[in-house]
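Supplementary Note 2. Why include the ligand at all?

Several targets in our set were suspected to adopt different conformations when bound, so apo predictions alone were not considered sufficient. For every target with a known small-molecule partner we therefore ran a joint prediction. The input for adenosine-5'-diphosphate is given below.
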Amino acid sequence: MAKVRVLIRPKGGILDPQGKAVERALPALGFEGIERVRVGRMVELEAEDPERLPELCEKLLANPLIEDFEIENLDDGA
Amino acid sequence: MAKVRVLIRPKGGILDPQGKAVERALPALGFEGIERVRVGRMVELEAEDPERLPELCEKLLANPLIEDFEIENLDDGA
Amino acid sequence: MTVEVSRHRELGLTDAEYELVVEKLSREPNGVELAMFSLLWSEHCAYKHSRKLLRRLPTEGERVVMGPGENAGAVDVGNGHAVAFKVESHNHPSAVEPFQGAATGVGGILRDVFALGARPIAILDSLRFGELDSERSRFLLDGAVRGIGHYGNSIGVPTVGGEIYFEAPYEHNCLVNAMCVGLARQEAMVRAAAAGVGNAVVLMGASTGRDGIGGASVLASAELGDGDEAKRPTVQIGDPFEESKLLECCLELLEKGLLVSLQDLGAAGLTSSAGEMASAGGVGIDLDVARVPLREADMEPFEIIVSESQERMLGVVEPAKVPEVLAVCERWQTGAAEIGVVTGSGRVRVLRGAEVVGDVPVEALVDGCPLYDLSPAEPNGWIYGNRATLDSAAPAEETLLALLSSPSIASKRWAFEQYDSVVGSRTVRRPESADAAVLAIPEAGNAIAVSIDGNGRRVACDPYAGTVEAVLECVQNLACVGGEPLGLTNCLNFGNPEKPATAWQLERAVSGLADACEALGVPVVSGNVSLYNEGPDGPIYPTPVVGMVGELPEPGRVTGSSFAHEGDAVALLGPFAPSLAGSELAKLRGVLGAGLPSPDVSAVAEACATLRDAVRAGRIASAHDVSDGGLACALAEGAIGAGLGCRVDLAPLVERGCSAEEALFGEGPGGFLISGDRAALESLAADGVEVLVLGEVGNGSLDITAGEQALVVPLAAARTAWHSLAGRVEGAA
Amino acid sequence: MLWGVVQFPGSCDERDALHACGQAGEARLLWHEERDLGGLDAVVVPGGFSYGDYLRAGAIARFSPAMEAVADFAAAGGPVLGICNGFQVLCEAGLLPGALLLNEELRFVCRQAELVAAGAESPFTAGIEPGERLSIPVKHGEGRYFAPPEMLDRIEANDQVAFRYAPGHNPNGSARDIAGVVNEAGNVLGLMPHPEHAVEALTGSVDGLRLFEGVSRVAA
Ligand SMILES: Nc1ncnc2c1ncn2[C@@H]1O[C@H](COP(=O)(O)OP(=O)(O)O)[C@@H](O)[C@H]1O
Ligand SMILES: [Mg+2]
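The joint prediction is reproduced in token form.
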């Protein structure tokens, strides 16, 4: 089984209200100097056949119209 | 500014309804041999002072009662 | 022995209780048995400080189908149908993790209702937080509201009503009470009693993990080794998707007559469900923990039998029907495992495969816990703090705006818009459109009205009168939509009953509840008790929350709480005797103290009957009960909702001796603000109920005269104040 | 006129949809594992939370056997109505353009919404004049309509916008106030507001009934 992490983020240019909400909350908590916050999803899984993961991402885990994804292999010490 | 990625995942032992729902759906979609699906969140940001990020995670980005977080520095080629 | 002694204490059992366990078993309990006893003999499961008091509540009535003791109460709504309902608290989990705490609170009360075979058709929520200027209160409020919405919206049950109050004593111990209302065909309903020696015990729904293994974690640290992070008990996470499937599955099983009985798994998990089912049926149950589907493979038997993992139900099934039951579960993609059998032993035995790991008599486990008498003592005066935020010399206009924007009075739209209030196609009156929510019941050819009420501050001022008022407010809210009470549920949220002052509050409140129900002829069909609600500064306000279901014949006739037409007369109906004692204004001025006027229950009941008939006959255009903030706030609410001002003179109240302030802002039970055709309103007095015409609807402002005081507030200003909650929650966040 | 209402595990508005369809014809539930749509004249993919929607609303539901059959039904010109979550399912399945994102305010919102008919032609909008206003509830947490600007231009140029939120009534930050769109052929309509919750005066409004009656009239 291969251990894999899929990172899914809103496509550039699409309003990310979750990221904006984090940015808005920062000053009240006393955090300055934090920018470009983007909130996405992470899916971690173990797969027998990692070759098919891009297909899984395109079909199910991400919606290509609004999201980009990235697959990280966690086994080779990345 | 340091580019940083925060990975937030349900703590071990905590029910992860999202991961469970995805895992259950996979066989019907023709994906066999995928296990241990855990769904979490990813926050990417740029920070002037990355030292304070653990505090930010505990206070705002993650819920320490039910989530673990991990901070990845994206600048030094990780 | 010394180890054992410290363990039972850490598990919450007193030495005497532990001795009693040893006596009942005729030996020392092992770890599994100790876990079982400590949970079932906890306050939460055994009601050891409240059960004797609760015996005072009237529980019988012609329309009662199921009373206290079942998973929920149920009343007859006609045509072979029953309405099941219950309110329950999830205060402590919500104070730790408000989103999941509130979500699982909703999930739990839904299971109580569908355990009877009733399809949930409505949720109501009653919430208490510290003052809104506290960051912690806003965090808890936001989480709790999101959590309730998340669960109810996802599972497709409308949240149709509720209430939210903000008072400093709830700062550390918020209250999250959820009520569920369900509808059943009486024929398809089941009780929770296990029956039939040899019948199978089937666990349905989610797999079992280490959720909420509260006090029993002591055993975890003793038996599993300290510092084992991953094995520490964890917060319960709700999964409405799982519950949605479980709900449909259970209802289908009951419709098909495949279950002998059904019970939800709540506090203390399998132990309490199995124990209570066996006790109710006078039988025994064997459970094999090796057959329980687990989320984590390495769980110990004691963890499995006390786990509070959500979204699980326990069914008793005749052996021949087991395959069909499993097939229905399969179709709904809900887990199901035959984990045990009904026995004639009168014991709950816990097995791991062939090995017996626990064996206790059902009677000792479920009914053996000693019940305690309270040692009440009336405290000396007002035991809570006071904080002035409004100058007592403030002009009447400013006072009215301060009251309207006080978060306990301000519109709760910010909250209820986060709830789906329309799913199910029954919601005839949504939040804020009338004093009670109204749901059509075409199955019985009528409708029900539901409301949940309880002003803890007034109960703190006078636990007896305040609790009577909570019941009256609920009855009044139903009357505003033409509803007649069928039954009552309640949740008693109090502090530590071992303290004499809290014991006194509890004792007085239960007396008030009992007397009010008796006088009104409304049976108590279900309820819940939550004690030990305390913060570092002391107990919460004593907070009995009352939920009611009423019946009305024709939902199409229901009026709203806002004025309807320009030029309509405005009148006060009922025996309203306003006082500043315990009022929102007294709070803002920081002058709260002990004592409330005594309510006249039968006079209020008569006014309710008159109003109910008038609404049903379509004789009035709007009805709103006068509650928090007094007549001036009731008038403002009627006006804001309509976008129509009003011009009224409270002279009739002043003439009988009310001060201008009492007439404007005084509170108390028994008052209704009604509007409509003047002659029609006046004719209501023929029943002997007082009707005072005060003025008329119209003009763009609130124009109110009371003796020497006169105030004119533009409608827009009143609206801004009343809708200020969202800005204050979000703006500060 | 026989309507089919798709039922997924965890969906929750299917009974309401069934009730609404029942006022404009006959209706039956279509279990998510069914592939046979024989005899159906129109299909509703209802709102609710199919499969929990934990990943992304509608993401899992669109792969169900019933949805495969619905895609074929739509391709053959059959009328298909996706409401709320059903709209999301149809977008995920590529039967409708665009996607639905988290509400801009990041909160679930349930309220009566004012819609304006935007002129798209479809069986569902058959009796509704462009510019007419309808009062229909919305209730969703993920209903912000999104499509890239070129796609939005194209949809508008093709008259595929069926409903917009009336000015000042956009509850979720939807692009160009879009509340509902049709496919190019006009036989598939998706919208976030819930017409099935607006079919009786008793519960608030009858404006939603017109969408169901429209199809029945066209089919008759
Ligand atoms: N937490 C809540 N959830 C749902 N509805 C609420 C909530 N709080 C208040 N409401 C609704 O707002 C309206 C006004 O509430 P409230 O002031 O408590 O009414 P009343 O004074 O008539 O008891 C009611 O329709 C009530 O159901
Ligand atoms: Mg109230």
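DSSP finds five helices and eleven strands in chain D. The pocket of adenosine-5'-diphosphate (ligand 1) is lined by residues C 125, 127, 159, 161-164, 412, 415-416, 419, 431-432, 435, 453, 477, 625, 627 (CB under 6 Å). Comparable summaries for the other entries are listed in the accompanying table.
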